[in-house]
Amino acid sequence: MSAEIDNNQKQSCQRPNRQTKSYRKFSEAAARISDIAPIDYFFANELTTATAANELTADEKEVWYHLLIALSASVRDGHTCLPLMHVAGQQFGLASDDNVITHHGFSFPNEKQLHTLLASIPFLAASELGVTQPNISNAEKAEVNVGGTLAVVFEHNCLYMRRNYQFEKELKLALVAKTQLTLGYTPAAITDVVDSLFPENGAIEPNQATCANHANQAREVDWQKLAVANSVNKGLSIIAGGPGTGKTYTVTKLLAALSMLSQSRLDIALVAPTGKAAQRLSESIQNAVTGFRGVIADNVLDVIPSKAQTLHRLLGVIPNQVNFRKGSDNPLDYDVIIIDEVSMVDLPLMTRLFRVIPAKCQVVMLGDADQLPSVALGSVLADIAVRPHLGYSKANLNYLAKACQLSSEQAKQLPKAKKQVADHLSMLLKSRRFDGEGAIGNIAMATIAGEALQSWQYISVNSTSRDDITLLPPVMTQWLNQYVKRYYQPVLEAENITQAFERMSQFRILCATRVGNEGVEVINQQIISLLKGSYQQDKLFHGLPIMINENHYGLGLYNGDIGIIWKNAQGHLVAYFEDTAVSEGGVSSKNQTPGFKTIIPSRLPSFEPVFAMTIHKTQGSEFEHVAMVLPSKADNQLLTRELIYTGVTRAKKKLSLSCNEPVWYRGVDAKVERYSNLSI
Ligand SMILES: Nc1ncnc2c1ncn2[C@@H]1O[C@H](COP(=O)(O)OP(=O)(O)OP(=O)(O)O)[C@@H](O)[C@H]1O
Fold first, then answer.
1. 454 and 579 housed in the same domain
2. Region Disordered: which residues (predicted)?
């Protein structure tokens, strides 16, 4: 340890009433640090030993040891790194129950002292970590070859696990490189094409009858038109917006614009993170293309693919390996890649994807940055689609004003960059699904703005005056039975599997948690008891909806895929899955029902009933009616603004809520924050 820490500082590294300097067993650590997991304990033990920490004093070693625990816990929570400022001077792992301290935690010294301590740890310099330029094969090797040197990096005032640092750095380089790609279409050609796709009189809009005030519309910026103009010439664009803001509609026009501008026929890939999201993207693109037939030339529309695929399919999964068939020596070959539901894509997957995107390829990302981040590491979309918009550069503002032929009044509405520039980002704000009167839309908007009181008022007022919002009675049995009879009994009684799937898409119970009385497991058991008279674990029955819990590449089934157990023509219970999965390869058989694939239950990977499912797992799906069940206690860590927003916006027409007022306030107040340094 350097001599820079004076005695006073050393004093503050020491904590009074502390017997042990390290924990001999995990149980000792768990008794002191709340929410510690075994992996945190073992990671800290391994790394403290591996670090050349011999030069540290016992107290300094102890601080280092707890920093490693905090880093591991932070990564478990989905953060890419651990910013020092989030632990400096804090009592880490302190917890209490009813004002009685249950875990005393560990007291970290202040940031200056932490810096002095970290200065004596032999971290590798960032330049030694093998990531210095985008799309290099070294990055793949570096990802695998993590042994030998210290597995922790200290950069940007943050501690990183080395692999995560490499992912972030590599992706950032790749994104920045993409922002430097321009397609070279001339401004005059772009203006003509954009104008033809968005004529002022709106003749091209299929739903024009629903547009009310033309005079106002002429004054408002058409943000969809702006998004097309902003994306058409750029290597990287992000079109972000809430549900029903027309992201898919806009990207279909963007593809039409590219097809009109390009001299040659474009190779376009449509991808999404899950099978369900890929299926929805296919349907939305097909609907948009059908709507444009007759107004956009067929040869232009014919270039747009009608089928989307999953990211895993695009990259080519190798069973039981983290790496994909596609690699830097075997890259993709597309001119344009559209990635939907980007909020669900984690940092490692996005990095691996960018590693195989060729330099000439345009990338367009679509998503709702207000939704929950990926279940795994990072929050790529939220990091690169910063809200509110950071603003456009002067050059981009001039270009957009010309390309979209904006009046000076309209040009003033565009966001102007102050410190940072976000030329790659287009935001769509007007929901076409939730009109101004729509209570669901109002609740969603107030929630994401953090207006707990306002959003609760929308719920309580509307639940007495409108039938699209219902506040459910606090005792679950008072409402569960009627929903089971109305929505789930008919699934069991459907005439065929197509009808069963249709009926399942009408309604879903969404929970914040898996466990506990308000969790998925208990509610599924209760529903099965109501339907079958009793609950028997693992007992399959005709009409049981199931969700797959792990990827099975051989069968073409992915974590989150939904199927229904159904009697086939031979009277055997088999699992049916809708046909996106079929297009993903895997199994086919002579006895397939068209549009479905069937798999015998004994071959299925791990699955569970899905009458109720977690809000996390519903990303990329929507239902006519959603009943959202939140925990009864406000101290639940899973309860966040993004979770509530994601749950609310899964409902297309009706939303029923089982939730009390304090829980709602606490949830709307708790904004998800994921630590990273990915901004571009
Ligand atoms: N400018 C427009 N004029 C008429 N209809 C539109 C326009 N923009 C979008 N729509 C319609 O609004 C609906 C929602 O659009 P779209 O599916 O593109 O939204 P999205 O943002 O992709 O939704 P999601 O969040 O569900 O993915 C569609 O029916 C679409 O046809």
1. yes
2. 1-22
Which string of b and e fits 43-70 if b means at least 16 CB within 10 Å? bbbebbeebebeebeebbbbbbbbbbbb
The reply to whether ligand 1 has any atom less than 6 angstroms from the CB of 371 is no
Whether residue 560 contacts residue 617, with contact meaning beta carbons closer than 8 Å, is answered with yes
Same domain? For 469 and 581 the reply is yes
Residues 423 and 505 reside in one and the same domain: no
Task: Supply the CATH number for residue 225's domain.
Answer: 3.40.50.300
Per the structure, the complete domain to which residue 393 belongs is given by 181-428
Q: Which long-range contacts (CB under 8 A, 24 or more apart) does 513-519 make?
A: 513/614, 513/631, 513/636, 513/638, 514/614, 516/631, 517/476, 517/632, 518/476, 518/629, 518/630, 518/631, 518/632, 518/658
Q: Is residue 545 assigned to a domain?
A: yes
From the CA of 317, how far away is ligand 1's center (Å)? 32
Q: Domains in the chain: how many in total?
A: 3
Please indicate whether residue 609, judged by its CB atom, sits closer than 6 Å to ligand 1: no
**Tens-digit pLDDT profile for residues 259-310:** 999 989 999 999 999 888 888 899 999 999 999 999 999 999 999 999 999 9
Q: Is residue 272 part of a domain?
A: yes
For residues 347 and 454, membership in a common domain is answered with: no
| Probe target for ligand 1 pocket from 217, 284, 618, with the most ligand atoms within 8 Å of CB | 284
Pick the atom of ligand 1 nearest to 222's CA. 1
Q: Does residue 274 line the site of ligand 1, with CB under 6 A? A: no
CA-nearest residue for atom 4, ligand 1, is: 207
Output the pLDDT for position 47. 83
Whether ligand 1 lies within 6 angstroms of the CB of 620 is answered as no
Residue 157 lies in a domain: no
- Low-confidence residues of the chain, pLDDT below 50? 1-20, 135-137, 141-148, 201-213, 581-590
Atom of ligand 1 nearest to the CA of 291: 31
| Residues 6+ positions from 594 with CB-CB distance below 8 Å | 579
Q: Choose one of 428, 461, 492: the last residue of a domain.
A: 428
Which residue is listed with tokens 């953060």? 79
| Residue 424 identity | H
Residues 6+ apart with CB under 8 A from 98: none
Residues 578, 454 share a domain: yes
> Would you say residue 638 lies in a domain?
yes
Q: What is the pTM assigned to this prediction?
A: 0.86
Complex-level ipTM beyond the 0.85 threshold: yes
Instruction: Identify the domain boundary among 72, 87, 122.
Output: 122
Tell whether ligand 1 has an atom less than 6 A from the beta carbon of residue 652: no
